[in-house]
Amino acid sequence: MKPLILITNDDGILSPGLLALSEAVSELGELLVVAPLFQQTGMGRSFPQGESIGIIEEKLLLMNEKPNKAYGVNGSPAQAVAYGILELSHRKPDLCLCGINYGENLGLSLTCSGTLGAAFESHSQGIKALAFSIPTSLSKQHSESFEEIDWTPIKKVIRKIVVRILDQGFPENTDILNINFPDLIDESTKIKFTRQSPQNYSEFLTPPLRDFKKGYELKTEKRVSAGSTPKNSDIFAMKFEKAISITPLKWDLSFELKDKTWEDELNKKEAE
Q1: Cα–Cα distances in Å, from 89 out to 33, 79, 247?
Q2: Are the CB atoms for 116 and 110 separated by under 8 Å?
Q3: What structural domains and CATH numbers belong to the chain?
């Protein structure tokens, strides 16, 4: 039986990145394409509420010149995954692929990312996931006016990675693979396994003096330097080495606190 591969994103059902990802793996399994109806960048793993949430529309995507059914969900990326698994799949998917996202997902931005939010939702339901992202200007990351991209070399790398996953499974102790491509890749581009950088890839700018009664969208700017970026990190690999970064992620964000002083002090009874 062919593996069932759930494909989703946060840029919306009409994103060229979603189509490119679907085409890259179209021969590797049975595809279930379920994505937000509209642009949902920056939604993380949120579950918005409202009367229209959960409306599902059937779409036809021309995939490798063949029409294929897809589903647009009125909701966040995580909701698209949830509805896909619970309502639209005839059996539990074997794998979830998220992307190809317009905009890097590096460093501390991961929790903001709708692409990673979809991957985390998939894993919460017992399905491991891969997230794919490419660089794009900050002004375009929330847009439905998509930049023209040569997907051919990117699709080759994606297929290579997914083939290995289907054949041999994920690396040990890995729940999600977060994969970021540099601006330009070819057959000589290196693939590096990296750590998540403990820094922001882009930072919010202080707003100018303004009228608080009027809306204002915070502006962001990419601010990273080679000297302050760990050399084993996702940011360093993608930004400064121009390599393809693969960051293994685990769902557990906690660690064991070996110093018991805090626990002991907080358990002390106050003197009467």
Answers
A1: 10, 14, 28
A2: yes
A3: 4-200+231-253 (3.40.1210.10)
